[in-house]
Amino acid sequence: MSVLGIVLAAGASQRAGGPKALACLRGEPLVLHAIRLVREAGAREVVVVVAAPWGTAVAEIARRHGATPIHHTHPEQGMLSSLQRALSFGTTHEAALVALVDHPRVRVETARTLVATWRRSRAPLVRPRHGDRRGHPYVIDARVFPALLELASSANPRPLFDTLVGARTIDVDDPGVLDDLDTSRALHDVGARLPVTSPVSARVTVDAALTARAWLSHPSLPSARVP
Which of 16, 69, 93, 98 sits 20 to 30 Å CA-CA off 84? Predict the structure, then answer.
């Protein structure tokens, strides 16, 4: 049963003060953490939804690591619009594992458990829960794709998710599923470093682009790691 990996990385990162998808944690940009998470969890194909102002650099990293970037022209419509953009990619997968770029500390074992639960149960939705809170990533069965695509792009998918009969919630000992590194302080607190950029409303500066290229071309680190 084929699973599509979806990485949502189209946010403008206004609260973060810079491109959080390019922020470096443990030697790798956050977008690469997300790509590896979904791939190692069993995704056969990986797509990364990107948008201005940081989309060019993020897309370059995605392509370098075998993922397909999908450019979203209206990310301001909300996260669901990015998910819809990925689901419209035209694949024939039977489910999607959806990961957020600002949840880089999710354990691979957690994502694998979600996918394995879906494979056993064919549940319409499989979500993780840590303590009393649900988190990310999550698995959506392909039977739910049409309903998601029919929603208004600015809608919240939770009401739809809450009506899905047979949806599964898996308790996990993984606080990373609750990460929401949406601010510069949150990034700093986990040790992530933003590249040098222009103001958030502008495009990526040369410094940010060179930082991304360094991740891609470091001679001793073919997996795009940096010291």
Answer: 16
